[in-house]
Design a protein that fits this description.
The protein is α+β, with helices and mostly antiparallel strands and 451 residues long. The protein has three domains: 51 residues, no CATH class; 226 residues, Nucleotidyltransferase, domain 5, CATH 3.30.420; 71 residues, no CATH class. It is 31% helix and 16% strand. It has a seven-stranded mixed sheet with strand order 3-12-9-4-5-6-13, with helices on both faces. The longest helix has 21 residues. It is globular.
Length: 451
């Protein structure tokens, strides 16, 4: 049994002395932006004027649910109206694809725009795995670890004594935050558990959907993504341990606010693109150019079937394999308009596989430089010795097994909280058993012959 747990966040992310703790009165704000790129004539685009074109698709819109009190009140009215209309209908899980929303409420969700964070979650998850791999592969170059920020965890992280543990299996929490500075503070848009299994020489990755409804100590039931914002990695790790009965004692946080730079350090990612995906990449590159002035260059936009960049949305594109740079990879990960959630998950896997493929092309003398670039955007509780001890398993081949929670076994449903936030609701005890079987296989107390 762990010692009695405090409701107060511990460590460097704890609040100032004298501050009140407890559940926030207002939900954390999600500020996402989306707009249409300009519809140009059939003349080649003037890249130097692209961000200020008078032919743009309208004002740059803040479509956040909580961007203002007026917007939040309007959302609440729409939510109540939709709830009355939906009456006894249950809300299906978003992860089942577009058809899953046939019975969903048609109020606030009907006007929601694509969220910009999805693509960055893709790249953050991939590089959180690769930072561990790179450190192991660069074991002979200990000096490069000087650029990695090490921040030990403090406080009680235990789940109360019910977690299964095996000394041959190391579970590490992976978090991805979108901070524009080097603070690594904010919500964790990526939550995952990286398992280093020394029994079988494998790496396993369990992804927890950020909108999962979980109990956060001191704050009650809320989105899993909010635990990091409330109490930093300490509270986030404790929440994972308590919810899914895990034995996590270490973490890696990746700041993907500058993820494009890291992808560029790897030499880009080679991806097979469809014509529709190319169009959406250009749409998203335009959005990136509006969000951050001067970020996108004219050469970032993908050419159409005639080898020109003329009309971002109206041109005809062709399928092809492209080497995407950092900005293009971020835009690729943001694609949310043309298919279901399953396809978006497939893109996550493609990005990860492409990064691993690029890593395998490098020689060992290039690892320190890559690690130095990645480490600048990472924070971890793992010391140099612990990181370097991972090198034997990593050197066996970067074989990665994956699991996403909730899945079909958990039968998740979508629902709204009293504050209007959308969450996945599912049996976390059943999910904990699923994760245990995935990580420990036949050694799990819940093993039934398969995951």
């Amino acid at each position: 049994m762990g010692k009695q747990q405090s409701d107060k966040p511990q460590g460097r992310h704890a609040g100032k002395a004298g501050e009140q703790t407890g559940r926030r009165r207002e939900p954390l704000r999600d500020n996402y932006y989306y707009e249409q790129p300009p519809r140009h004539s059939r003349e080649p685009m003037e890249f130097e004027d692209i961000s200020s074109s008078s032919q743009g698709g309208g004002e740059f819109q803040d479509i956040s649910s909580y961007s203002s009190d007026r917007q939040r009140q309007q959302d609440q009215r729409e939510l109540r109206q939709a709830s009355r209309q939906a009456a006894s209908q249950s809300y299906p899980a978003r992860s089942r694809g577009d058809q899953a929303w046939s019975g969903a409420p048609q109020g606030r969700e009907a006007v929601r725009k694509p969220k910009k964070g999805a693509g960055r979650r893709v790249l953050s998850l991939a590089l959180a795995v690769l930072v561990v791999a790179l450190v192991g592969l660069a074991g002979a170059f200990l000096f490069v670890l000087s650029g990695l920020r090490v921040s030990p965890l403090s406080g009680d992280l235990a789940d109360g004594g019910s977690a299964y543990s095996d000394s041959r299996v190391k579970n590490i929490a992976l978090f991805g935050v979108d901070a524009r500075d080097d603070s690594n503070e904010g919500r964790s848009d990526v939550l995952a558990i990286l398992t280093v299994d020394n029994r079988r020489g494998t790496l396993k990755l369990t992804s927890i959907l950020r909108d999962s409804q979980v109990y956060i100590e001191g704050y009650g039931y809320d989105k899993a993504t909010h635990a990091y914002a409330y109490g930093g990695p300490e509270l986030a790790v404790r929440t994972l341990n308590q919810t899914f009965h895990l034995d996590i004692t270490d973490y890696v946080t990746v700041n993907f606010g500058e993820m494009a730079q890291i992808v560029d350090a790897f030499g880009g990612v080679e991806i097979a693109l469809t014509a529709d995906e190319k169009r959406e990449i250009n749409r998203n590159l335009w959005n990136l150019s509006v969000e951050t002035e001067g970020l996108i260059k004219g050469t970032d936009y993908l050419a159409d079937a005639n080898g020109q960049v003329v009309d971002l949305l109206g041109s005809t594109y062709s399928d092809s394999v492209e080497l995407l740079n950092g900005n293009q990879a971020v835009a690729y990960g943001r694609i949310r308009e043309i298919d279901s959630d399953d396809a978006r998950v497939s893109r996550q896997q493609q990005v990860l596989q492409a990064l691993v493929a690029q890593l395998k092309k490098k020689n060992i003398f290039q690892y320190p430089g890559l690690l130095r670039e990645v480490a600048a955007h990472c924070e971890t509780s793992l010391g140099a010795g612990e990181l370097l001890s991972l090198s034997p398993i990593v050197l066996r081949g970067l074989r990665l097994e994956t699991l996403s929670i909730p899945g079909a076994e958990e039968a998740p449903s979508g629902s709204y909280t009293e504050s209007g936030a959308w969450v996945y609701v599912y049996d976390t005890e059943q999910a904990a058993q699923h994760i245990s079987r995935f990580i420990y296989e036949e050694d799990s107390p819940y093993w039934n012959g398969g995951v």
